[in-house]
Design brief:
alpha+beta, Jelly Rolls, six-stranded antiparallel sheet, 4 helices, 12 strands
């Protein structure tokens, strides 16, 4: 018998990429985004929320190497998202590289009154948003950690020290919006990841 494993695995990967992943979120809705850039070291929540936040748009660059930017997200979960088998989430892409689980941008999400909700990283990039009709008031402390490992050659890099890393923005905010997660499709995605691994 012929070994068609490579062809079959490529077809499975295509179905996941083109059919399953795009169906994980039934719908999306925008949030209002504002940001405040920390001058130097990270600051506690109570100090951050009192700052002057400026409007910020998806697609904009943010975060000098080793810098911190606070994002304030406001809006509301659409009332029509009250459907069985779904949940509302804030979908986050700080400019992640899908090739690494870490060694890059990361964040901590807070409620409007300063309670930590959860961490944000490339393989854990959502924030619970509540139920249909709920208001969203979330702060996201985002750290622009540069990838100093490169491709793990451990060569010389200027990014390892704030004094030599420069001031150019490290990341581009790719996504920060509400998403209506289809739980069944999400579970299917986890099954395909497990079975193909």
């Amino acid at each position: 018998m012929h070994d068609n494993r490579v062809l079959l695995e490529a077809r499975i990967e295509r179905v996941i990429r083109e059919r399953i992943k795009p169906a994980v979120y039934r719908r999306t809705a925008p949030l209002t985004i504002a940001s405040w850039t920390v001058d130097d070291e990270p600051v506690p929540f109570d100090a951050a929320i009192g700052q002057n936040f400026e409007p910020f748009a998806v697609g904009s660059a943010w975060g000098k190497p080793w810098g911190t930017v606070w994002f304030h997200l406001t809006g509301g979960v659409p009332a029509e998202w009250d459907e069985d088998g779904t949940r509302a989430e804030v979908v986050v892409d700080l400019g992640f590289s899908a090739t690494l689980p870490g060694f890059q941008a990361e964040g901590t999400a807070y409620t409007g009154d300063g309670v930590i909700i959860k961490a944000i990283e490339p393989l854990n990039s959502y924030i619970p948003a509540g139920d249909a009709g709920d208001l969203v008031d979330i702060y996201l402390e985002a750290a622009a950690n540069p990838n100093i490992a490169g491709i793990f050659t451990f060569g010389v890099t200027e990014l390892g020290d704030k004094a030599t890393a420069g001031d150019a923005s490290t990341y581009v905010l790719r996504q920060l919006e509400l998403g209506q997660l289809d739980v069944t499709v999400w579970e299917l995605l986890q099954d395909t990841w497990t079975l193909s691994g």
